[in-house]
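Async update (no meeting this week)

Hi team, since we skipped the sync, here's where things stand on the single-chain job. The sequence we agreed to prioritize is pasted below, unchanged from the tracker. I ran it this morning and attached the output directly underneath so nobody has to dig for it. Comments welcome in thread, and please keep replies under the output.
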Amino acid sequence: MAISKVWISLLLALAVALSARAEDAAAADVEAAVVEEAVLTLGADNFDDAIAKHPFILVEFYAPWCGHCKSLAPEYEKAAQLLSKHDPPIVLAKVDANDEKNKPLASKYEIQGFPTLKIFRNQGKNIQEYKGPREAEGIVDYLKKQVGPPSKEIKAPEDAATLEDGKIHIVGVFAEFSGPEYTNFIELADKLRSEYEFAHTLHANHLPRGDSAVERPLVRLFKPFDELVVDSKDFDVSALESFIDASSTPKVVTFDKNPDNHPYLLKYFQGTAVKVMLFLNFSTGPFESFKSAYYGAADEFKDKEVKFLIGDVEASQGAFQYFGLKEDQTPLILIQDTESKKFLKEQIEAEQIVSWLKEYFDGKLSPFRKSEPIPEVNNEPVKVVVADNVNDVVFKSGKNVLIEFYAPWCGHCKKLAPILDEAAATLQSEEDVVIAKMDATANDVPADFDVQGYPTLYFVTPSGKKVSYDGGRTADEIVDYIKKNKETAGQAAPEATKEAAATEPLKDEL
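Output:
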């Protein structure tokens, strides 16, 4: 199921944050003289042939301007050199997704940010996200495991020693290694091998807390949280995948600086369920009473399509910025529903958690919106728009509005800023034209606009026609576009069709 776009920024920012330490180390004093010859360079003209030729290939989709891509490049090349000697060789490749001719590839494989790495198996019939390390040795170790059997056999108790190592392990217990149940298990293991460790055995008594009397076949999932072990006997592939997905996330995910919790954080934000988040200071105040009450709430609402998270204020600054929260509001509880609406209760008491959640599920709460204050003075050529006045400025002004959604850190946005200023100054005498901008990191972007990267520009006419800006990026080209496409009395603007170009993906937000 596709991830809702409202989570893309936070989810990918988390992914970048989790690998930042490794990437920073790679960027420091790397061997810059490595000649790039082991990594295959792919593009629109040879991509399909390469995927068809190699039964297993790792492909990096990158952009030349991306800092994280530059840090990864020497490590990726070192890994490719080492893996070229593997038997059989393991192939690493790269695609410049910023190249115009390769953009259809980036679109086909849903590349949302850079670098994105994907594993292609079986001539591209099985495609998985690469979720391993970003330094050479880690890449090598990770990929060697990926090309071996998807599930290892447990023949003796010592083979099961790793099942309690703090990771999630899925073990199939069978009477024989054949039949539809075993076939389905191996099929799913191959599909999910980049996320979990799989094993299979004929002897349940070899497993921790094992029992020779276990009725086979079954799947036993070992995890380092909650009930520690959970079983399923449904070997339908979809049902088995759902069982693993539901069982491999803690009842309450912890958002702190412990790296062991990071995989569960990513999984939490990937989901499409309603998300409940409690933020407070873990080191001060009545933390234990809040934790107890919150876990109780998770039990009480376990039958709802809802996920729970408890976050330490110190570790959650990125989330605070994303949601527009402030530390003096804590302890606070936040709900993000499936329609991207948010509900907030600040300065909450532990004993209020359950009753407030009941109000939400009973439909008695009103959503809140993240917005900067409406500017008291807004007399610059490019008008500042915030979430609380975007409807009035863009849709109710009766004017032709070119609006830019930007991020303060975005390089493309910084280059575009003086150009928009010049275009707006040129058009100041046109009373029916407005050029505006919104900081999309400090304001909730209206659902009318699909903002997947920065800058994103839209042109909105007085009649409400909304099109993605497809003009040039010089002041003269912007002015010409607006004059050609604006609506005047009795005249409708022609519709533009192309997507906005030269955006920085949300992944580079950190």
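Quick observations from my side:
Residues 1-8, 15-34, 492-503, 505-510 have pLDDT under 50 and may be disordered.
The longest strand covers residues 56-62.
Reply here if anything looks off.
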